[in-house]
Each structure stands twice: as C-alpha cells, then as structure tokens.
C-alpha cells in the first residue's frame, strides 16, 4: 500500500510537529539559509555570494572546517566576501531578505581563520 494514498492533511501529531520544528530550527542555526537562487547576483563588487555561503554552510553543517577553509582561501580573491562594500543591493533582491552583508562578513572571518 502506498503512503501517499493514505496520507491526509493534518495527520501529524503534536509531538511529530514539535520534532519537525526542532529539526528545522537546528538546521537553520547551522549556517546561512541561502538557497543559492542567485537572485543576489551579480554583485556589483564581484563577490560570489552563493559560493561563499556554500563554503560556510559546508563547514557548519558537516563539522569539516579544513576543506571549506582551504577551498575558500584558494578561491578567486576578487570573488571573496571581504570585497563586499555593503551596498545592500543583494538584500533588496534576496527573496528571503537575508542580511547578506553581515552574513558575508561573518562567513569570511570564519573561513579565513587558521
């Protein structure tokens, strides 16, 4: 029997909904909730915003800091987050309204740590 055939709206218990909420909150606290839609691009200063967040999220979510830090340090310096001038054009374009300049600053500082 197919689960899809038997599923109905509102059939999760309160405990199941609470668990889903806790998982969602834990996931969101692990990095930047960027979906890499690229609406923020192109950055007028050349920052590759989605790629920076991808490096950062890999480090935060998987607990592997060495590889993302190495890869970020080897990336094109012109595309790194420290080139952000905080013009906020990206924030205006972001469907999630992420505080991109502040998140870039945080990601860059973390990724450049030795």
Write the layout of secondary structure elements.
Blueprint: H1 3-6, H2 14-28, H3 49-62, H4 66-74, H5 89-93, H6 100-111
Helix pairs in contact: 3-4, 3-6
Q: Name the structural class.
A: mainly alpha
Question: How many individual β-strands?
Answer: 0
In angstroms, what is the radius of gyration? 18 Å
Q: How many structural units, i.e. domains? A: 1
Helix content class:
40-55%
Number of helices: 6
- Spans of at least 5 consecutive residues whose pLDDT stays below 50 are none
Q: What is the end-to-end distance? A: 54 Å
Mean pLDDT: 91
Main sheet: strands, sense, barrel:
none
Strand content: under 5%
Choose one word for the global shape. elongated
């Amino acid at each position: 029997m197919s689960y899809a055939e038997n599923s109905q709206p509102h059939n999760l218990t309160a405990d199941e909904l609470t668990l889903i909420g806790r998982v969602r909150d834990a996931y969101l606290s692990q990095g930047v909730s960027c979906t890499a839609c690229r609406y923020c691009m192109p950055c007028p200063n050349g920052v590759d915003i989605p790629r920076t967040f991808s490096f950062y999220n890999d480090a935060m979510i998987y607990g592997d800091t060495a590889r993302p830090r190495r890869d970020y340090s080897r990336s094109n310096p012109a595309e790194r987050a420290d080139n952000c001038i905080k013009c906020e054009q990206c924030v205006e374009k972001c469907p999630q309204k992420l505080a991109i300049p502040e998140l870039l600053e945080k990601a860059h500082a973390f990724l450049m740590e030795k």
